[in-house]
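Quick bug: Phosphoribosylformylglycinamidine synthase subunit PurL output formatted oddly.
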Amino acid sequence: MNSVMDQTTEATPEQIRDQKLYQSMGLTDHEYGLIKDDVLHRLPNYTEVGLFSGMWSEHCSYKNSKPVLKKFFTKGKHVVKGPGEGAGIIDIGDNQGVVFKAESHNHPSAVEPFQGATTGVGGILRDIFSMGARPIASMDSLRFAEPKTDADKYFIQQIVAGISAYGNCIGIPTVGGDTAFDDAYAHNPLINVMSVGLMDLDKIEVGAAAGVGNSIIYVGHKTGRDGINGASFASLQFDSEHESQRSAVQVGDPFEEKLVMEACLEVINNHSDALVGIQDMGAAGLVSSSAEMGSKAGGNGMTLDLDLVPQREEGMSAFELMLSESQERMLLCVKAGHEDEVLKVFADQGVNAVVIGHVTEGHQYKLLHHGKTVADVPVDSLASQAPVYHRESAVPEHLKNVDSAQFEPQISNPTETLKEMLGQLTIASKESIYETYDTQVQTNTVVAPGSDAAVVRVRHHDKALAITTDVNGRYLYLNPRVGGAMAVAEAARNIVASGAVPLGITDCLNFGNPEKPDQFYELDQAVMGMSEACEKFEAPVISGNVSLNNEYDNIPIYPTPMVGMVGLIKGLNHITTQDFKHAGDLVYVVGKTEPGFNGSQIQKMQTGKIAGKLFDFDLDYELKIQQLVTQAIQANLLQSAHDISEGGLITAIAESTFGHQLGVDLASDLSVADFFSESQSRFIVSVPQEKQAEFEQLVGKEAQQLGKVVDDNHLFVQANDGYFDLDVDKALGIWKGALPCRLK
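Here's what came back:
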């Protein structure tokens, strides 16, 4: 955005109007007209145009997605705080709340992969501790193109290094996530990060600034010229002309964030009488945090003196100070007379903290700079009165007149096809990614990356939290509504397979340009499908983020609404993993296997594309199967449980053999092709022989015994028209070696 600034720093309100300079900041003619004629009744100056450009961006205002977001299922008996705050909170008993949220950092990461990923982690952690919670775990959900060039490989390595560097340095474990590869994400990768925290429910804080005369305190790093108007940048459609916009990307410092976090938590826990509100300075920087805090309180205004803002560069303009997205910064509202008490907490941690303004009477948001008033606008006009657009919706061309027949895999050698499947990057082990993460810091991680869900214990209690991130954009490309429901269902299956009951979700809604009717259709339909599934599983949406305009030179990504789900395990003895544990245990598939090939990994592997009508999905049946598996785990009938998803039943069987390198001797009346079907609502489980009768009585006809676990490092599966025959260590070598080999 520096080029915009250089052209317009001295621009008068008349020049901004006549030369339409506001367009280069992301405002439309219509929006500029609203500001000029309906809000201010005068021409806005350069700083004011900047404030509106940040706050009315999609990233801050959700102006294109608000009508869609209202369709989400957000209610639940355990929801303490739903969408609208820094993060959502769910009651998990014992006066404890689990706090979680996800954020996307797609465009910044595409421009500057290391810093883009790093600051994505830092930003989501601030959302968690601003609520009064201590972060206990993070996850990442990543989408890349298949790595073909050295530049592709470098990009992926830098993203992973950025996530790793921040989490490891600040001391918060990155406990897993999901990574998929598809050329639909070429030039527009998805970098989504989820963070989870724990808190006492009597310590909840919100981002509000109320009480005339109360002080506004700036905390953390000094403000520089990094990330200037990053919210508008993140809301733009991405193209080859924007690839070098490094001025819109922030720079992270996890060591500073650690100090800021500890000081903020001390204020929240030990000086709550002094604290009115607290909020992260995230997208749109100082303007978003201050205007939102002022607007939330209602009935008051705010005046800030920008000369008091800590600055690390000389000659910064009001525009730059307000719209910089320099990292590791928070904004607090503190009761008058208590400022020194709070400032001392930050001083003791070696963190910048300074009073920069006050809550005022009236509704005006005023900024002073070098003794002059450089902005004077109604606070609500920035924070809550952005225009809302009801976009046109139209079925995409590729969904019209779709062939309903399911793709039929061609398999002449089942074992070779399985080996090829295990080497597909979306299927293969992601250990080369997560081995760079510190997964055990804080010593609460019970199930580390590699199983269906990560599990983190809740100290001093016989309970734990299961955490997962999931979505298959290919399914949504073929049917956004059903694919949206499937994304929630797969997340729930991963939670259930770990021994937990789903509590709720957060999301990152990664879509294309909502002004294009076919792209808006995908967003709208996906949210409806997700909402139906959330209501079915009693797992409400409590937080999330919208990332639109994920296109490169007018080519959109697959619709990819990442689902981050948290579940509660009551009783640590119920924690379950996907690995077969003992030779002699019986292996069952729970749920019906049906043709599910359109949008599947085998269709992509054999044809290079996905096409056709997405296979059927029944939410009621999905819930039934999940409840059966939950009952089996709680009755201590299962040694292992693994969700069947990408790659189908045979892939899930192979993955279940890898943890202890135990083999299987199995047989089924399914065809070889059926073993690669991705039909939903299925688990592969293992049962001790002495529990066979009890298990079969519980599940009835919904489970079929396939055979047993054996102690000979050999995977043998007989189908009705062929067989799979492979040494487990060879299968494991293919699965573990595929990604490191491609990234060399």
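Actually, after a second look the formatting is fine. The CA atoms of residues 145 and 185 lie 5 Å apart. Closing.
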